[in-house]
User: What shape does this take?
Amino acid sequence: MITHLNGKLVEKYPTHVVIECSGVGYFVNISLHTFSKIKDTENIRLFTHLHVREEAHTLYGFAEKSEREIFRLLISVSGIGTSIARTMLSSLAPGQIRDAIALGDVAAIQAVKGIGAKTAQRVILDLKDKILKIYDIDEVSVNPNNTTKDEALSALEVLGFVRKQAEMAVNKVLSQDPSLSVEEIIKLSLKNL
Assistant: This one.
């Protein structure tokens, strides 16, 4: 299996890149998260996953090993294919997906286009124990953060903001510093709304 590519960046698009390694050009599918991490430098390195099917061998590239790990976990869930996993990684950062699964946050996962309530619940049910084990997250320490997030979201809704927009702002704030108090989360989220 191809584990990474290190070579010359020939083409760069939001959905894919072409990397030339020793005279061979590799077409590599990427997420928007990886696209934002790739600098316009001549040489790049991407961690890869080769998805083999009867009709095609498709290469997926990731700027970070953690994103590749989340991708592999997602495609292990029944009903989640490579395109939905890539859409999830384009909509949410790998850390946000990890946290949403660990916290059992169905709404965050369901916010991704193409994922319904049942699929979101299946993702959480199938991956929660694996996420907690792999990332050594203590369930007890994770839950208070969820309460803080919920309180901040409720306050923003009372102030008249749409839940989806408020949730995106709160997630952005929490991704930078998950130890913030409810008041700090609200203040910083208001700046993003």
